[in-house]
UniProtKB/TrEMBL annotation:
Keywords: Signal. InterPro entries: Lipocalin-like. The lineage of its organism: Bacteria, Pseudomonadati, Bacteroidota, Flavobacteriia, Flavobacteriales. It comes from Autumnicola tepida. This is Lipocalin family protein. It holds the Pfam family Lipocalin_4. Residues 36-100 form the Lipocalin-like domain.
Length: 132
């Protein structure tokens, strides 16, 4: 199952980045705490309100910093500026005092992470770039 998920992620990467020569080459990494540790900024979103869509730039996107001790900090989320995170079976969960957030890690590369919304009926993907 894990191999199938990694192959699906690789196929998604090829579809997203395969035709754009300006994008850097992406090395797909295992989804684990060691590889997600660092600072990530939301730079693009791919959200469909029902129909075709495309990647759109995000200005002043949220910035998340994940620490190897299971803690995180965030800028841009009023109710969730720090807390603890877990990462299991490609599901990233953030726990704060006032909020609980969950995302599916669709792709994790050395410089790019794509998170998918859990329970989305239409496409809802969020691209983060490593900034540290």
């Amino acid at each position: 199952m894990k191999v199938l998920l990694q192959l699906s992620s690789l196929a998604l990467l090829l579809m997203i980045f395969g035709c754009n020569s300006e994008e850097e080459e992406i090395t797909v990494l295992d989804v684990n705490v060691q590889n997600i540790t660092g600072t990530w900024e939301l730079t693009e979103s791919y959200v469909s309100p029902g129909g075709e869509t495309e990647w759109r730039p995000v200005k002043n996107g949220n910035i998340y910093t994940f620490f190897d001790n299971g803690k995180f900090s965030s800028s841009g989320r009023q109710n969730c500026s720090e807390g603890e995170f877990t990462l299991e079976d490609n599901i990233l969960q953030l726990d704060c005092e006032e909020e609980h957030l969950s995302w599916r890690v669709d792709t994790l590369g050395s410089r790019v992470m794509i998170l998918g919304g859990i329970g989305c009926i239409e496409a809802c993907l969020y691209k983060y770039k490593r900034i540290d």
